[in-house]
């Protein structure tokens, strides 16, 4: 695997005292990369636990999504039609001018748990991109879905496994979805200080479609170089663990950084 300049983030399933500061280690798994090591920080699961979306999500653009096999060969397609939903989960955002291609992959455990895994993971990405559409004119488009055989003893290993298997694919983002019992987190992603030399990678755990989408928008933000706000600071932002599952805004500094770095994925 090519070395990357990155910063790991974890959304851990273990609970923390609200407002407590600090870093929680997750198995002592460390890497050395080009410019900085890997830092693992913990976030409690949302209070409501596992939660699915209700109703249809807002799909900004009709897309014919490729279904790939494990070797990357196209086996079929699924058409997801543009849908403007007046329900509680839609912001009525217009489709973003900047289209970012996504390969969404689900591991064996996730596929066994959800027979509708292809539709499910597309809907999660579509829900996760509402804020990006609304605030940054960015539309994540799932151009392909594929199976994945995840392996690793913890979340960091499983993210590395994803990157090893899908590096070099012709997509801007590779979003992994896992139900692997060894994945002890809610989500994990590479945080890039500079434009990555390939796809941007993240993995989210199966928290239900609604909470997975909330975790994914947090992780996608790291792919744009965004860091965390400190717990206990009162900053209402999805990058503050105190508010990650309860607000749908970034703070001003993070908005500026996403706006600056979105050029990486043109």
Please indicate the percent range of residues in DSSP E strands (runs of 2 or more).
15-25%
Structural class: alpha/beta
Morphology = globular
The chain-level mean pLDDT equals 83
Instruction: Give helix and strand order, one letter per element, not per position.
Output: EEEEHHHEHEEEHH
Give Rg in angstroms: 17 Å
Protein name: Peptidase M84
Signal peptide: 1-20
InterPro entries: MetalloPept_cat_dom_sf (IPR024079)
Region (Disordered): 25-47
What keywords describe this structure?
disordered N terminus; about 270 residues; MetalloPept_cat_dom_sf; eight-stranded mixed beta sheet; about 20% strand; Peptidase M84; 6 helices; signal
Would you kindly provide a written description of the structure presented here, covering whatever features stand out?
It comes from Bacillus paralicheniformis. It holds the Pfam family Reprolysin_5. This is Peptidase M84. InterPro entries: MetalloPept_cat_dom_sf. Keywords: Signal. With 266 residues, this protein is of the alpha/beta class. 23% of the residues lie in helices and 21% in strands. Strands 1-7-8-6-4-5-2-3 form an 8-stranded mixed β-sheet, with helices on both faces. A hairpin with a 5-residue loop joins strand 2 and strand 3. Helix 2 crosses helix 5. The protein is globular and about 50 Å long.
């Amino acid at each position: 695997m090519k070395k990357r300049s990155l910063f790991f983030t974890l959304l851990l399933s273990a609970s923390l005292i609200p407002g407590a500061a600090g870093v929680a280690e997750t198995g002592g798994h460390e890497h050395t990369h080009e410019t900085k090591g890997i830092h693992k920080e913990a976030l409690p699961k949302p209070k409501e636990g596992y939660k699915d979306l209700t109703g249809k999500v807002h799909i900004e653009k009709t897309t014919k999504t490729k279904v790939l096999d494990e070797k990357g060969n196209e086996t079929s397609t699924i058409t997801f039609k543009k849908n403007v939903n007046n329900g509680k989960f839609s912001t009525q955002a217009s489709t973003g001018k900047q289209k970012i291609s996504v390969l969404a992959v689900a591991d064996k455990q996730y596929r066994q748990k959800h027979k509708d895994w292809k539709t499910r993971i597309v809907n999660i990405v579509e829900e996760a991109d509402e804020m990006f559409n609304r605030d940054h004119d960015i539309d994540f488009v799932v151009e392909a879905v594929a199976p994945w055989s995840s392996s690793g003893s913890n979340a960091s290993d499983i993210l590395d496994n994803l990157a090893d298997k899908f590096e070099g694919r012709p997509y801007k983002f590779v979003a992994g979805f896992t139900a692997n019992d060894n994945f002890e987190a809610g989500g994990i992603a590479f945080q890039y200080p500079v434009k990555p030399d390939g796809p941007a990678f993240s993995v989210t755990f199966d928290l239900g479609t609604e909470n997975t989408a909330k975790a994914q928008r947090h992780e996608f933000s790291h792919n744009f170089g965004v860091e965390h706000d400190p717990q206990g600071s009162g900053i209402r932002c999805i990058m503050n663990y105190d508010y990650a599952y309860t607000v749908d805004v970034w703070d001003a500094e993070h908005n500026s950084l996403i706006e600056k770095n979105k050029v990486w994925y043109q």
